[in-house]
Design brief:
The complex is a heterodimer of chains A (about 110) and B (about 120).
Chain A: E1 4-7, E2 10-13, E3 19-25, E4 31-38, E5 42-51, E6 54-57, E7 65-67, E8 73-78, E9 87-94, E10 103-104, E11 108-112
Parallel strand pairs in A: 2-11
Antiparallel strand pairs in A: 1-3, 3-8, 4-5, 4-9, 5-6, 7-8, 9-10, 9-11
Chain B: E1 2-6, E2 10-14, E3 19-21, E4 23-27, E5 31-38, E6 44-50, E7 56-58, E8 64-68, E9 73-78, E10 87-95, E11 106-107, E12 111-116
Parallel strand pairs in B: 2-12
Antiparallel strand pairs in B: 1-4, 3-9, 5-6, 5-10, 7-8, 8-9, 10-11, 10-12
Amino acid sequence: NAGVTQTPKFRVLKTGQSMTLLCAQDMNHEYMYWYRQDPGMGLRLIHYSVGEGTTAKGEVPDGYNVSRLKKQNFLLGLESAAPSQTSVYFCASSYPQGQTEAFFGQGTRLTVV
Amino acid sequence: AQSVTQLDSQVPVFEEAPVELRCNYSSSVSVYLFWYVQYPNQGLQLLLKYLSGSTLVESINGFEAEFNKSQTSFHLRKPSVHISDTAEYFCAVSGQTGGTSYGKLTFGQGTILTVHP
C-alpha cells in the first residue's frame, strides 16, 4: 500500500501566485487533515474533513481553502501565496474512531519568495 | 481547548545512555495521547499511544511512555539510545471519541534528540 501520498514534494512560488497541493490516501479513511509544520511550533491544523464533500477549519485556516470531492483525495489550495505561508505541509488520514492513529504523508516543502 | 508543551527543544545524549523527553498537556476533556517520530526529510510515524488501561505503554523499538493523569504528563523514555534514534519527537493529544474532536491532533513544539557516538 502507498498509504498517504502528497504531490508535489517541493515547490517555490512567487508572492501572489496560486497553487494546489494534492493528498491521496488508499486506506479508505474517512478523516483527512492538512497540517503545517514550522520550526519550534510543531504541527498546526489548517483544515480537516470528516467525509467526502465536507470540510472544516482548523487552528490556522486563513489564506487556505480545501476541497474533498472524492473520499480518497483532499486538496489544499493557496489562492494568493504569501511569504508567511513558507512551511512544510503534511497531509494525514485516519479512521473515524479516535483511538486509531493518523497516517502522515511525506510532506510538501513550500517556499514563497 | 487543548495544549501540549514539550519542555525541551533539544536533547543531546551519548549512545547507550538513557533519555527522557518530557511532555505536559492541558485539556478540558479526556484525551488520547501519542508520541510521533520524524526522521530527517520524512513524514511523521507513530511511536506509541495511550488510549486507556495500563498507564505504561511501550513501542517495538524500546521506547516507553507513562501517562500520569495527576501531573498531566506523558514523558517518553528509553533506557539505552542508539545512533539511529536521532530524530525529532512530537507529543500530541486528541480528544476522545464522542465529542467533536474528529481525531484532530494538537502537537507540542517538538524535541530534537541527537545521539552522539
